[in-house]
Amino acid sequence: MQPYGTTPQAPASRRSRRATTVATLTLALALLGTGGTLAPAAQAVAAPAAQAASAGPYDRGPDPTVSLIEASRGPFAISETTVSSLRVTGFGGGTIYYPTSTAEGTFGGIAIAPGYTASRSTMAWLASRLASHGFVVFNIDTLTRSDQPASRGRQLLAALDYLTQESSVANRVDASRLGVAGHSMGGGGTLAAADSRPQLQAAIPLTPWHTTKNWSGVRVPTLVIGAENDVIASVGAHAKPFYNSIPASSEKAYLELNNAGHTAPNVSNTTIAKYSVSWMKRFIDNDTRYEQFLCPAPRVDLNISEYQDTCPHS
Fold first, then answer.
1. Catalytic residue among 59, 147, 195, 230
2. For the whole model, what pTM was predicted?
3. For the PET hydrolase/cutinase-like domain, which residue ranges apply (predicted)?
4. CA–CA separation, 275 vs 121, rounded Å?
5. Which one from 262, 285, 287, 305 is the annotated catalytic residue?
6. Under a CB-based contact definition with an 8 Å cutoff, are residues 282 and 288 in contact?
7. pLDDT band at 245 (very low <50, low <70, confident <90, very high)
């Protein structure tokens, strides 16, 4: 486990990229300090980085700001459709939230699972909020409210398959850009889904619970969100061991909500939304405009009691 406030050692490729960036900035500052302008060679070195962060094929929505990702709704108007449990197999139906605009082409897809004994209503706030930032989000019910994490993981994947192949909005979803999230046992299911389907682009387990502690097989970029005062899935027995077991090469982050309990993800929470939106945009859409909210790592403050990461991201 990394000491508090430190960042795990980045792989060689990231260290090399970071060294190149530092060298470029040093050169630029030196030239500007003499009152001159960047020489053509320096401009040529600096240009690719600026271009890489400016636009990508899956960027959706305006340039992000702190006020945008902290707002109760994102820039996209959304609609919703209910899917009856009688029409599907492998999970309990749910509600699909999706952007009404078709001008941007397809969107990434996300499936979200609730926790033990809970229904999809507990995660509706996050599902609709993510959708308003340019995702098609399937907020599901599980087959039974007592389903264990492994089952919830299979149900998340079944929901993604339905979303991309059979749903009424399948043509709005890019099946190559998918992610999962879930609360409590749904968070454990999120880890299980990521472990069994490495093609996923992002995973966010929220105050996750699972009897399995080792997730060294996970290759999906994963943001683990724990709660400092969680007495049901304590961070020491669940969220932190989960995070520590995921290889750094997979891209990961650990966010601990300050002075929060296990059910914190069941009500609208700006901190959860801010970093969930940023994580999904960065990895499902490969939208590097959102890297600024993840790297450098967020500081410990009134909302965050601990944060670890693998910055900078590949």
1. 230
2. 0.84
3. 53-312
4. 21
5. 262
6. yes
7. very high
